[in-house]
## 1
Amino acid sequence: MRFLEQYLFHIVRLRPFRGITFTHRTGCEGAGSQANCIMNAMTFARACGLPYVHTPLTMIAHADRPMCEWVTAWETFFNLGLGEVAYDAETLGVVNYTPEVYREIELCLGWRGRGDQLADCFKALIPELRRKYYSNKSPRTTEEVMVALHMRRGDVTVQNNSNMFTSTQKAMHTVNAVKSVLDSQQIPHTIRVYSQGNIEEFAELTSLGVEFFLDADPIWTLQELIEADVLIMAKSSFSSYAGIISSGIKIYEPADWSELAASVEFILNDPLDDWLRCEVDGTVDEVALEHQLLIRTKAKLNF
């Protein structure tokens, strides 16, 4: 009823929309999911010429410390509220751009069916998102190429959320493709796997000489994914955020968003132009990968 009331006041011009915010959905979502929703809200606000009004996170799933410390740590990490208007509950006309009502908000403000324009607005926002992120951090530099493979486990299995699951065998094919290009160019590199569970679950990868970081601190893990020279992404909002902020090479696996009703057509579901697609069998366009690797390694040498 809250949005319906706001909508009625808007169309009769008694209380027009004056800002866009995002507060977490019903239930408790992960940090990556909420960060992506905030970026969606920020994108839509910029597109409409309205202020983005930042509502600090209040509850995030998978907490490994008291919730107040957990949300503060993620707020500081993302830095998405930096330079933005802070939400005040007394301010009228601020609309909550959540997956449950975003279609209605877009229709109300004349943006329904203009997904391509919103996607362009999001791409234009990325440099600003990176500045926010790095305002309290420095990019890491390494002499060798760092390859990060993010694999979803824990709450994602073959039986549970199977559309978001990537088999170890498929991941091995992708890692092999990357390793083959690096080896052919004699580029020194390290390959690291970030996931959850026991090392026995990733037996196929051990022969490739990878390093495993399982059940590590998630904030540290996300920073590792962002700083990697090559990021092999999982089908997750966690990986999606890393890919957006990262200046490295991103390899993504298409997700079946049709099974995620609350996310369908949300801005960030589409890959960005420079992301390399991982095929069904785990292979990657090695010509495109080699091209991006040469650019990346040249940049590292000149840093």
## 2
Amino acid sequence: MLHVIWEYDVRAGDEAAFERLYGPEGAWAALFREHEGFVDTQLLRSDRPGRYLTIDRWDSEAAYEAFLVRARERYAAIDALGDALTSSETRIGRFFG
């Protein structure tokens, strides 16, 4: 199992829009669900206002890599929507387990 973890700092006032976009029913998860190997996504809100983590789980690194290639254009479009809501975005890393 591959876990892809990202950290975000969301602009004040944009938290609800961010949660809709990045949550388990948001545009990211909808895109992920179209691709083989996607398991689920979690959105975690920190005790520090505006700070979030996402954890996207894939059944293998190969499935995730195939998704990145196939979904490149739609990925970029959704990423641009998220960029408008955040002041920083950091990929924490890929974790296996």
